[in-house]
Amino acid sequence: MLRDSLPEIVTGSVPGAKAKTLLDRRDEAVPKGLCGSNYPICMARGEGAMLEDVDGNRFLDWIGGVGVLNIGYSRPEVVEAVKVQAEKYFHGIFNVYVHEGYVKLAEMFNETVPCKGEKMKTYFANSGAEADENAIKIAKAYTGRDNIICFSGAFHGRTNLTMALTAKKAYALGMGPFPSGIYRAEYPYLYRAPKGYSEEEAIQYYIDKLLKLFDEAAPASDVAAIIIEPLQGEGGFIPAPIEFVKKLRKICDDNGIMLIADEVQCGNCRTGKYFTSEYWKEAGAAPDIIATAKSMGAGVPISAISAREEVMDAAPAGTIGGTYCGNPLACAAAIKTMEIMKEEDYCAKSLHIGSVVRKAFEKMKEKYDIIGDVRGIGGMLGVEFVKDKESKEPNPEFVSKLVQTALQKGLLLENAGSCGNVIRFLAPLCMTEEQMEAGLKIFEESILANL
Question: Residue 424: left if φ>0, alpha if ψ -120 to 50, beta else—which one?
Fold first, then answer.
């Protein structure tokens, strides 16, 4: 079976003949903005953590659909759940008439999300960007305020509002003007904190920079929400330190500001908790609103927005919802995905994989001067490559070569970080022990091949 197989390149090099033909057809039929990828992969099928291309090459996928495949490709029970729903009806717009799958899934989320408060409510959209945008709608409706604070390194989406929130403007070239009332603080990137600072001093440094916004840009009384990724994705797989989050929670409480956790990528068991902000709640710093997507539907498009009842009920009728939001097929997939993740303890799988892989990455860091930092939480890890450990100068050129070398050996990698010098680890959490060891072997071989 593909799901139990190991990486194998049968064509000698990638892409093979069939893939080249399909790539040529793509270039003729699809806008150039979608054709700049350095991944000449043409999918034929996927199972578990493995992908097979149209030429029969088999790849271990450490990209995981950029966080969509925590449960893996083509989980049979999810496939069956979607089939069963499809035989009843494909679509029903929830704003007009109710279907039980939507209500059941909302109930399951309300029992699971670690938001601040007692009684939760949840509604659904289609993508991570929509989830973030709706979380901001809710925060504005509840507070009656206009302004939003986001962070350096953030990625929140490609809608007009979420492009404005996203830090890296390569995602927004020529797409303005953007909404006003958005202010950016510096994310607590401890590896690149001012030289000589202790962790405590660095956290206070970042808090002080945030507080300056209230004096120089947006008075606290005008701020509806602060939106932050508990573990930044595109920004470089950087965890928000718990002590920083605790101080952030206090700032929000003192000023009537909503704290939004963008768990689009880091939610759904990826970091060893169902939601990463469970770690926040354990520290007494639960978020007000959680936005999530990606792995919640096992690949079927769906996202969720959750908060306590009085926050959610502040949105006026007609301001939330949409034609496809909470589609019955997507709800069926998400219900079965959540059931499997809880029954099979995917949080424990994440912690186990994260422990093994992190130890391997740390050993490589000791051996190779080009690895500056290894970081993350559970099964969401980043490896930052630098010119040397002393200067910490980013080394995106090495990462680009590493990605291509690993691809030719059957391992799919993707970069991250503002400079593109971080390798992200987002392998499906159903990856076998043999696949994990094979991937680590290819990863180190690919480093050595480019030194």
Answer: beta
